[in-house]
Amino acid sequence: MKAAVFEEPGRVVVRDIPKPEIAPDEILIEVRVASICGTDLRISRYGHFKLPQGQHRVLGHEVAGVVVEVGHEVVGFSLGQRVTVTPNVGCGRCEFCRQGLNNMCPDYEAFGVTMDGGFEEYLRVPAFALGNVFHIPDGVSDPSAALTEPFSCCLRGQRALGVGYSDTVVIVGAGPIGIFHTMLARLAGARKVIVSNYGAGRLAMARDAGADVVVDVSTENLAEVVRAETSGRGADVVITCVSSPAVQTEAVELLANHGRINFFAGLGAGGEVPINTNLLHYKGLVLTGTTGSSNYDYVQAMQLVADRRVDPSTLVTRTFTIDQINDAMEYAASGDGMKAMVLFGDGAGRQS
Ligand SMILES: [Zn+2]
Ligand SMILES: [Zn+2]
Q1: Residues 186, 256 contacting (CB under 8 angstroms)
Q2: pLDDT tens across 239-274, in order?
Q3: Residue 95 Cα, ligand 2 centroid: separation in angstroms?
Q4: 18-53: per-residue pLDDT in tens?
Q5: Rounded CA separation 25/132 (Å)
Q6: What distance in angstroms lies between residue 132's CA and the mean position of ligand 2's atoms?
Q7: What are phi and psi of 187, to 5 degrees?
Q8: Which domains does the chain have, with CATH numbers?
């Protein structure tokens, strides 16, 4: 079968590798679609601390597919079932896993990191990861199902902020994550949603997703716009969806008294930001950060998709075959368009 294999930093190659054989307590998924995430791009460039040097790995964790083999010891799965997976499999025994926070498990395994992921025709799910396999509700398309994973991370991020009807929400960055946050802020009933980005291209999509005000920071000053749009008060909520220390520093300054912020995009190695604690103290600010999503967040995110309150598939702006994986990653990294989606098989992606 075809698979896009990470071999070393800077090198992802499409190879013909053996179709996985499953043990009696495992299942096999025929992958239909797999989208490219920032995490895939980071691993392809820099590797990952859980990937020893020389270890090859099939990347990808935003997938949807069909169960095509079920080990005879497995219960709860059947042939032909449409499924997705959530990437981070907790150990099940630590204090975080016991609270349902598999995203915070220090001892996690993950598809596309410690296990082969979705950029391959057939994905083997080991027994310990079966709790991370979810049935796709009827009416949810494969692309929407695959994109429910990053959407669920945003849902977790907004839960930490408690966005509500009296909030003016500023979302910094109009990539896929910024768009998901825009959709969620709208769903939460936010009073006003302001989205900023460098360059106008992606801001049109932010408008479509429900932004009231879009700010092109190549020609406009975000702080000035926020002041004008809030009668000088500042924003109740800010979400940073750009990996930049300067953006994080400026974002805190956008907040109103008792404002809340989520530093949603991580900075990676070397990203450190000094905190002006006087600002926190006198304005009573709340600083939050979230990473990934729990399986519980994921179930709620999928419910929103199944209920047609959001349509993540609208973020797919270009599709590729697995042979074009490097083009797909380049596109995902380019900042043009939104989500790159790899299609397998007949390439249609099933609708139900
Ligand atoms: Zn992802
Ligand atoms: Zn754990």
Answers
A1: no
A2: 999 999 999 999 999 999 999 999 999 997 768 898
A3: 7
A4: 999 999 999 999 999 999 998 999 999 999 999 999
A5: 14
A6: 13
A7: -60, -35
A8: 2-135+311-343 (3.90.180.10), 160-288 (3.40.50.720)
